[in-house]
């Protein structure tokens, strides 16, 4: 082999090696061009307090839309429940996680693989994703994304993460933070209706629909309750049942809510009146609609009640006026239980010595 051929051969080999090295180096440069570590939603991070609306869309059999709307005076409401108040904590949590979210790892940009991460379009067949959009009070978009599966601390990351796909980005990402987006109405609503513990109550009057009215009462909060009409021959009051009736409005929470103006008429199930030792009277009316129990409430303070009781009645009236509350069936059954639920049979005594 001539010296000229050897030189040409070595030159070609050197060019091949240089090309391979260049290709190897190009890989990391291409990867680092992706915005790994960047804030996912810079506009939201810069001004989370400006969020004026949160819209959540979901697919699947129970898909739908939830629209949380911020009030100018503070607080949030749910548009799909005619503006009923929304709990502050889940809203704060959602905004905080999104505002603090960073891009951890680039994922697929192929639409046919989005479903593997649950970041497919929410209107796709069998979709498991949720679409979330946060807008400012002036209408500007602060965050717009599809939320997918949550992941634990895997792959060397020091925190939980969530697969997301931003609407202005063709690629899916593993992002920081565990973003839980509920599509269940009651997870967002203020669920507390009323809390009147039994130790405040001095009387309860129940009028079940189509049955005999009855009442329990006592002269003060320290005495025992008496049943009216009193137990007949062969029966006695069951103390546990009486105490449960006295506390029937303790820690009462809703399963759903409806505007009175929008609700269809229901079948009457009865009424209940609860009076406290400090002069607060709460009256409830129970109806059944679409096999579910719905309760409407009113409150009034006695003429000689203390200022605190008058203020409590006003607060409760403001909370309840114009609304009906859907209750769990087992709770509703206690509100208009028949009188016989409060008594038990007495075993006859044997007169024989």
Describe the structure concisely for a colleague.
This protein has 353 residues and is of the alpha+beta class. It has helices at 3-32, 42-46, 88-99, 239-246, 307-320, 329-335; strands at 51-58, 64-70, 76-78, 84-86, 103-106, 130-136, 141-151, 161-166, 172-176, 192-194, 201-208, 214-217, 226-228, 235-237, 252-253, 256-259, 267-276, 280-289, 292-301, 323-326, 343-345. The longest helix has 30 residues, at 3-32.
Please give a structural write-up:
With 353 residues, the protein is α+β, with helices and mostly antiparallel strands. It folds into two domains: 42-187, no CATH class; 192-345, no CATH class. 22% of the residues lie in helices and 33% in strands. The chain has helices spanning 3-32, 42-46, 88-99, 239-246, 307-320, 329-335, and strands spanning 51-58, 64-70, 76-78, 84-86, 103-106, 130-136, 141-151, 161-166, 172-176, 192-194, 201-208, 214-217, 226-228, 235-237, 252-253, 256-259, 267-276, 280-289, 292-301, 323-326, 343-345. The chain is elongated, with a radius of gyration of 32 Å. The model is unreliable at 3-32 (pLDDT under 50).
